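U., I forgot to send this yesterday:
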Amino acid sequence: MEPSVIVDVMQLLIKSSLKTQEKARVKAEGQGGGQTALVIGGAGRMGNWFVEFMKSQGFDVHVADPNTNGETENTFSNWQETNDNYDVTVVAAPLRESAAILSQMLAITRTGLIFDIGSLKAPFKENTQTNGRKRDASCFYSPHVWSQYRFIEW
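Result:
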């Protein structure tokens, strides 16, 4: 057998072993036990990654995506069909749809930790005052997170 083939096989074995160990470590550190998560766009590539990650952390995960047909009690074709009782909401939709979703959530003051994976900021500059309350953006992760920015009511 060629030495280069042996090296390739051993490197593949090591990489696979490390990947398996990392998955086990992440699962062991699970921080989501007893909490719920909604992944909007959970049938897409990035959304599905978040679904699997959140599950590995112990979250009870629900998916809202137009590409699902609501075949289980944890899937919805539209996020507006869901209750506002999620500890975490991940918006993993295309940018244009994410802007509309986040604007709608801002208008109805959806609760829990909310973030998008596209890091949208510009569409919300006009929405700094809603429902008679002013909001300001600061760059921290905390409740009511919108893309790495916290909207503080005052």
